[in-house]
Amino acid sequence: MSYRYSAKVPPGLMTLLEGLSRSVFAAFYFAELLHFRTENPTLAINDLVREFNATKGRPN
């Protein structure tokens, strides 16, 4: 016997969660990037981001 269950999601919750997840991702990404920059102070910003993305496995 299976029951159908539908949950009611408050309006705007999906948008709120999407914004929260993006801001958390950005906070972690830029914190790692700043740490990487302190380890490589001589790299230009373009080279720094390219090298950071290559070593962390992120796309360019």
Molecular structure report:
This protein is an all-alpha fold. The chain has a domain at 29-60. It is 65% helix and 0% strand. The chain is built from 2 helices and no strands. The protein has helices spanning 13-39, 45-56. The termini are far apart. The model has no long low-confidence stretch (mean pLDDT 89).
Helical amount among residues, as a percent range?
A: 55-70%
What is the H/E order? HH
Backbone shape: elongated
Task: Give the helix/strand class.
Answer: mainly alpha
Number of discrete helical segments: 2
Q: Beta-strand level of the residues, as a percent range?
A: under 5%
Q: What integer is the average pLDDT?
A: 89
Q: Roughly how many Å is the radius of gyration? A: 19 Å
Distance between the termini: 50 Å
Q: What profile does the largest beta sheet have? A: none
Q: Could you tell me the number of beta strands?
A: 0
Low-confidence stretches: none
InterPro entries: CABYR
GO molecular function: calcium ion binding
Quick structural gist:
The protein has 60 residues and is mainly alpha-helical.
Give the helices and strands, then pairings.
Elements: H1 13-39, H2 45-56
Question: What structural keywords apply?
Answer:
60 residues, mainly alpha, 2 helices, elongated
